[in-house]
Design brief:
alpha/beta, 8 helices, single chain, 248 residues, Rossmann fold, globular, seven-stranded parallel beta sheet
């Protein structure tokens, strides 16, 4: 997609205060060329003055009462969803699922419902391109909470009713700046795993900057088709694929 075409479109970012979401938001604002960029979250993302913000609108919503914010999900073209957490940060398995799965899935359903196809087309699929940052190893049948939740969320997004869904499955994330809540295991692995992975070209880890850049490039490569789709087009992106996109 050319920047001229992108300049007529609106991007929506969910989870813009997280590690991946913030990196993505900064990349989209600097390089996306969108007419408008909207963030929806429990609080606005904090950005420094070096990031262009003339086309940015930040809005706060209650994810536990999304019905009250339906209007905020309308008239968008590309949705970047980086909502997520860990069981440790959430405090319990139930709280983890509420944030990591229910918030994401319910948001996706409302977006599909509030951005319907043109009445002149025969498709029932929303023309919105939904781009979701999931996780490597996601598996809806996993006995473990985290990969199971991610796999189930992916499946629910695919069934939500979009023309196109892109799912990004990063491995270990190399954060751009320290998280608000320290994660000892993540910090330890970052010291040990990332250098080894890069040296041996194993693609086990990836920087949040590269994930954000890859998501933005995939969105801008999409040229809306003249004929509407009858089936959801689903694409998956691994560490290796995202790194290649970010380097080009």
């Amino acid at each position: 997609m050319s920047t001229e075409v992108a300049g007529t479109r609106t991007a929506l970012v969910l989870g813009a205060t997280g590690a991946v979401g913030k990196a993505l938001l900064k990349d989209v604002l600097k390089n996306g060329g969108y007419k408008k960029v909207i963030t929806l979250g429990r609080r606005p993302a904090q950005l420094d003055e070096s990031i262009p913000q003339n086309n940015l609108e930040q809005k706060t919503i209650d994810f536990d009462n999304l019905e009250a914010s339906r209007a905020e999900f309308r008239n968008v073209n590309d949705v970047f969803c980086c909502l997520g957490t860990t069981r440790a940060d959430a405090g319990s398995a139930e709280a983890f699922r509420r944030i990591d799965q229910y918030y994401v899935v319910n948001s996706a359903k409302i977006i599909a419902e509030e951005n319907k196809p043109e009445s002149t087309t025969t498709t029932k699929l929303s023309p919105v391109h939904f781009l979701y940052c999931s996780s490597g190893g996601s598996n809806k049948n996993s006995p473990f909470l985290y990969p199971q939740s991610k796999g189930q969320t992916e499946e629910s997004i695919i069934q939500a009713g979009f023309e196109r869904v892109s799912i990004f499955q990063p491995g270990f994330l190399e954060v751009e700046q320290p998280r608000e809540k320290s994660r000892l295991a993540e910090a330890t692995l970052g010291v040990l795993l990332a250098p080894i992975s890069h040296f041996l070209n194993l693609h086990l880890s990836i920087s949040v900057v590269s994930v954000g850049e890859a998501m933005r490039k995939v969105a801008l490569e999409h040229v809306p088709s003249a004929s509407a789709s009858v089936e959801t087009k689903v694409e998956y992106y691994s560490n290796k694929y995202m790194e290649a996109l970010a380097q080009n």
